[in-house]
Amino acid sequence: MRVYLTAARLSLRRYLTYRSSAAAGVATNTVFGCIRAFVLIALWKQKPEINGWDEADAVTYAFATQALIAPMGIFLSGTELGPRIRSGDVAVDLYRPVDFQAWWLSLDLGRALGAGVLRSAPPVLFGLLLFPVRLPLDPVNWIEFAICCVLGYAVSFALRYLASLLAFWTMDERGVASIMTTAGMFCSGLIIPLTIMPGLLGTVVQHTPWAAVVQLPINVLLGTQAGGFGYALGFAALWALVLLASGRLLTSAARRKVVVQGG
Amino acid sequence: MAEPTTADGLAEAAAPLPRSRAEQRPLPGLLAYLLLVRMWSRSASQYRVSLALTGLAQVFTTCLDLIAILVIYSQVPMIGGFALAQTLYLYGTTRLAFGLSDLLASGVETLADSIRLGTFDTVLIRPVSTLAQVLADQFAPKRFGKLVPAIATLIWAVVVLPVQWNAMRIIVCCLTVVCGFVIYCALWVLSGCIGFIAVDAREVANTFTYGSEFATEYPITIFGAPLGLALTFVLPVAFVTWQPALYVLGRPDPFGLPGFLRFASPVAALVLSGLAALAWRACVRRYRSTGS
């Protein structure tokens, strides 16, 4: 266990070193939060309530999604494992006397914590100052939100790990990873809240694993999740288990069958 | 030579005798650019499956914003006073102009990395236009994928828009795409210049390019008057599609700006390109290598 904690700690420390780059990321997230907030405000001006959300919920959502982008790694194509499989460096990783999946989870967890510490609060605070952002005061909402974020992170990691592992078979994970990033951007609710998607499209996207990454934690924070915290918890935990287990199966298949690239 | 690592210093070191400009640069910039584009395309086509999948991903990514617009209009008939067909026109022209600039000029995105790693030095010692080399860097044929939904949406909008398509409207529509393309290219170059000043600022540069692209997909009225005017006169992206689109759609200016601005896109494009060229020269001159 200690080795994983150390790996996570060192990965966190590495992330915290690049503070100016994090500041640039914060600026970007804030600007995009504003643009998305303006679009949603224009929509809510025409229709003051959509599926139980008022304008303040929508604007809060716009900035909260920007806060979650970096820690949840929505724009990351896979994990840092993918390029190592492509280059053959993964041979060294396979030698390590640690659990392969847990090792990559620790490294990615350090990155996510660093991103959360440096990049999550500023966009929301900016929105709080200049836009009608409304955050709950009840600590229960925040505790439930934190639990949903942890599970959402587990789902996000499991998905990206699977995308990276495919490189063992396809040699170049970038194609699969870019398709997954695109699907993730849309299905997580980053582009447009899943709650306002109509009909069948809405039903489908609210059941993909990505819904657990951004939309469900924010729903729980706003207190608008249908079925409440219990549903969000069960949904995210189920997807996390299924995807992490698939990752384990695929890892052992790769260990047994695949020849590592090198030269 | 006091500063052997500045651009001038390197050029002098490479050519101690005064020579004509044509001799210093045996390849014209455009030809060099095309040769580099061909080289990168051949490199990308080595991984065929990956190229096809990443190209497909570009098509999907471009469609996402379109789906977002359709989802919004499934809830309400008007956004910022504009109907679906009109917003689709804004989206189509914006995406086409931006897609072309992204295809041909976004090599600038790799500039910050090459400055940080010191590999920009090699760009300077080659007797080829620095801008041509940087624009063509890592040319990605997958970005052709971005043009597909853009063209499809523009055709869709042109068909369903309730406007009389006379010669003038068609000319303005074509000019919108051309000027928009030039404006975005200038923004790419300017965003690249940020890399010379602050190496870590790549994501800030993204706000200018991707951010202004995203902002012009929607009617600028949604940002309110102060920000709308700033997007016209400070960061003049309103000239990419908004102003000429007001003419094509036959609408009065919601901010009460004079009508001649609708035809000012070529001027905005020229001014921005001039600024970008000056900024690029100044930055390349000031460049100091990070190498040890």
Please supply descriptive tags for the structure shown above:
heterodimer, A: 263 residues, B: 292 residues, mainly alpha, two-stranded antiparallel sheet, 14 helices, 2 strands, disordered N terminus
Could you give a quick summary of the protein structure above?
Chain A has 263 residues and is an all-alpha fold.
Report on this structure.
- The complex is a heterodimer of chains A (263) and B (292).
- The relative contact order of chain A is 0.15.
- Helix content of chain A is 74%, strand content 0%.
- Chain A has one domain (2-257).
- The radius of gyration of chain A is 19 Å and the shape is globular.
- With 263 residues, chain A is mostly helical.
- Chain A has 13 helices and no strands.
- Chain B has 292 residues and is mainly alpha-helical.
- Chain B has one domain (48-286).
- Chain B contains 14 helices and 2 strands, in the order H-H-H-H-E-E-H-H-H-H-H-H-H-H-H-H.
- Chain B has a two-stranded antiparallel ribbon.
- In chain B, strand 1 (78-79) and strand 2 form a beta hairpin.
- In chain B, helix 4 packs parallel to helix 9.
- Chain A binds chain B through residues 18, 20-21, 23-25, 27-28, 31-32, 35, 38-39, 41-43, 46-47, 50, 170-172, 174-176, 178-179, 181-183, 185-186, 191-192, 196-198, 201, and chain B through 47, 49-54, 56-57, 60-61, 64-65, 67-68, 71-72, 74-80, 198, 200-204, 206-207, 211, 214-215, 218, 221-224, 227.
